[in-house]
């Protein structure tokens, strides 16, 4: 199966599938088509009996630098509501097989939210994690406020979401956001090693166990996600969103007015 913005190897290794996000020039910014590709590929791999574990990766420079700002720049709140882009994310979250994110370089905004939607994260020493949406006049919309807070706790989640600061792979490990940090040359190999350990277990037990661990995080999450989503759409009613995204595209510093 070929896609526009991802590369898929259903048998990268025995029982292990690899999905590579593939918009290198845009640092793998997650546009709508890429997310559709990803949703479709995950569904296919989830229903392929030969696949027992799935790895999602980007390239050394960037896992993903967030949702595609250029696709949202001129959208209003109702455009965003009608676009319903997060339905794709809901589908991705329903993948029954374990999904590992192998992260190097930028893992920002929607990119960090995608990594957190995966079940585990293996990172290179060069990885940088952040939710920088605040710097373009919006806030996370694909689960960032909920999943980050659950993963790293309130203090660090608040700091990251309210300042947009990036944290290093070592700090992400200490905070419990990721599973492992390894040299950049071997981050994919390490993810494959972890996938192999999982792939040798019972696929049924793995499925049920994954479902059960996720349940621990579910109580209250759905409500939180819908709350977050409405607020994310509301950001597109502001002038600051336009200013923030225009400034990004024009490569200048934004001037926010609180309007
Ligand atoms: N959307 C669209 N294009 C992006 C992008 C994004 N999120 N991130 C990077 N790009 C593009 C840049 O526009 C640039 O394209 P051109 O060459 O055509 O100008 C190219 O990728 C390379 O980027 P930079 O020149 O900016 O590279 P850099 O090394 O100087 O900076 C960076 C890297 C710090 C990651 C910077 O690109 C950046 O700040 N990106 C935006 C990060 C961000 O704000 N992410 C959140 C998006 S909103 C979101 O994700 C909402 C949500 O919750 C769903």
The best one-word shape is: globular
Question: In CATH terms, what is the architecture of the largest domain?
Answer: Alpha-Beta Complex
DSSP E strands, number: 10
Span between N and C termini?
46 Å
CATH class label of the largest domain? Alpha Beta
Give the distinct bound molecules.
acetoacetyl-coenzyme A
- Provide mean pLDDT, rounded: 94
Question: Which SSEs are present, and which pair or pack?
Answer:
Layout: E1 6-13, E2 16-21, H1 32-46, E3 53-57, E4 62-64, H2 69-72, H3 77-83, H4 86-93, E5 99-103, E6 106-108, H5 110-117, E7 120-124, E8 128-130, H6 144-152, H7 154-163, E9 166-168, H8 169-175, E10 180-182, H9 187-199, H10 203-218, H11 221-235, H12 239-249
Parallel strand pairs: 2-3, 3-5, 4-6, 5-7, 6-8, 7-10
Antiparallel strand pairs: 1-2, 8-9
Helix pairs in contact: 1-4, 6-7
